[in-house]
Amino acid sequence: MATITAKTFLITGVSSGLGRAFAEGALVAGHRVIGTVRTESDADTFAALAAAGRAYPLILDVTNFAAIPAAVAEAERHAGGVEVLVNNAGYGHEGALEESSMDDLQRQFAANVYGPVAMMKAVLPGMRKRRSGHIVNVTSMGGFITMPGISFYCGSKFALEGISEALGKEVADFGIRVTALAPGQFRTDWAGRSMDRTPRSIFDYDAVMDPIRAARQAKSGNQPGDPYKAAQALLAIVDAETPPVRLFLGEDALGVVHQKLDAMKAEIAAWDALSRSTSFAS
Known about the structure:
The chain has nine helices and nine strands. By secondary structure, it is α/β, with parallel strands linked by helices. The N and C termini lie far apart (62 Å).
């Protein structure tokens, strides 16, 4: 049996959901984990997950961008240079675009885009110096397919997908890999207490929004995805010699992604002539 080479992970949002499963999976596999939490009680709970300081809690709000560099540097002094960053912290916003405020949009992007970027900027100098590292940005199947009623959320995940793919090309020569990890529906609190919901106000959207909101709330707690199997998938890509640029998790995610790809190909073909008509005549 191969001996594991212990790595230092930095995982954001480890107090619950996928973040907790990712952290527990990495700890069980023998790695060290710096995990961001929001409260002292969550810090104590996380620190108790492993002996000998292998679970290092870091009290940090990822939307406090100015605090991130010093917090990460302090954590690295205790736990070692971050070899794997998992940007997991974030939340979902549900609401029709017209009903949702610009403040809703700014908060969604602060948590789901700007915070992850600030975390990446904090660990990249060390990774670049060591000429190795792996950044895993937890996006969503909603970062490729879209659904009505979560336009701000989809927009934030599309943005993180694009940033991840472009960054991967910027840092590849330094031995740093970047993966967008795109889950489908997993059995977490994402659609329950963790979701921010804009109150309904425009009756014209009732036919679209009411069934969607009811179905999402009914499915909360009964989603098909197993967070602990997602953790094993995370460990597999971190251990891979050539990790994927993007990995969808779950049969539900694969199903809707293939549907979209087929629809995109059909639409591109249908409008091919008009697309080509904009070039200068040769």
